[in-house]
Specification:
It is a single chain. This protein has 160 residues and is mainly α. It contains 8 helices and no strands. Helix 1 packs antiparallel against helix 3, helix 4 packs antiparallel against helix 5 and helix 5 runs antiparallel to helix 6. The longest helix has 26 residues.
Amino acid sequence: MAGHDTATVVFASFGLASQAVLAAYFAARRWRPRAAERHGWIAYAFAGLGLPVGVWLILGGQSWRLYVGPLLFALWAVLGAAVDLWRRIEWRDPIRWGIFVPYVGLYFWAQMFLWWPLWDLWRAAWLGFLVLFAANTALNIRGHFGQDAADSESRQLPLS
């Protein structure tokens, strides 16, 4: 962290922590599904912290490259919490495109805008993000299309 300004450290820490939280959730969904059901809301709550992080970065005069990712992640959290936790809308199977497209779009672009800026700012953080993102993506996809998907068809867990 030496040599990095506070905004870079906060941005990188938020991005890396978000990947760790998502990896923990997707791992729990695979190996501890009851715990994932009980505590899955934590991933949306953490993502919601993107709002104060993004606003802080804006108020600090940071580049849009730093505040867009946290803000998109917060928007994803609001949408996800609304459809998965509050309204409990079944939108994954069958796919409800009006929810699927913004959900996946917000998720994907939030991840990319949390990751890409790290290349120029902090290569070690960029690499750490890549490793965690690959792990959580593999666990998430496995949960939808691997043996885990067949095992869990009877229960739909949020955040997937």
